[in-house]
Automatic annotation (TrEMBL):
<dbReference type="GO" id="GO:0004364">
    <property type="term" value="F:glutathione transferase activity"/>
</dbReference>
<protein>
    <recommendedName>
        <fullName>GST C-terminal domain-containing protein</fullName>
    </recommendedName>
</protein>
<dbReference type="InterPro" id="IPR036282">
    <property type="entry name" value="Glutathione-S-Trfase_C_sf"/>
</dbReference>
<feature type="domain" description="GST C-terminal">
    <location>
        <begin position="1"/>
        <end position="120"/>
    </location>
</feature>
<dbReference type="InterPro" id="IPR004046">
    <property type="entry name" value="GST_C"/>
</dbReference>
<dbReference type="InterPro" id="IPR010987">
    <property type="entry name" value="Glutathione-S-Trfase_C-like"/>
</dbReference>
<dbReference type="InterPro" id="IPR045074">
    <property type="entry name" value="GST_C_Tau"/>
</dbReference>
<dbReference type="GO" id="GO:0006749">
    <property type="term" value="P:glutathione metabolic process"/>
</dbReference>
<dbReference type="Pfam" id="PF00043">
    <property type="entry name" value="GST_C"/>
</dbReference>
Amino acid sequence: MLRSLGDGRGWKVEVLRLRFLDYLDRPSWEKLTTSFPRLRVFIGILKLLEGELGGKKYFGGDAFGFVDVALAPFVSWFYSYETCAGFSIEEAAPKVVAWGKRCMGQESVANALSHPDKIYEMVGVLKKKFGVE
């Protein structure tokens, strides 16, 4: 389930393969609590990422790098995850939220990703389309 990747500088990141995307991308609109397995796994992933960040600004250290590029798109979805699932990512993983804000402060990231409010609007449209409330 987990695979370690190193960049030759001595740091590693635990990457969840298919399960990571399964739990993040599969629509699940019901209000969740921490007793639901998907939310527990998602929070576990956040805590894993938080542990890898440690005291670093970015996953590779002080510089924005490959792992940050790969994970930054999920930051735009945080508001929708929190609203639909009824929990706080900041409470679960404050370092990940701070990292996300730093990523969104990168001009290239901010210009490439949709604003969280736009994503939440899209989620609302999808919920109506599929009759899920």
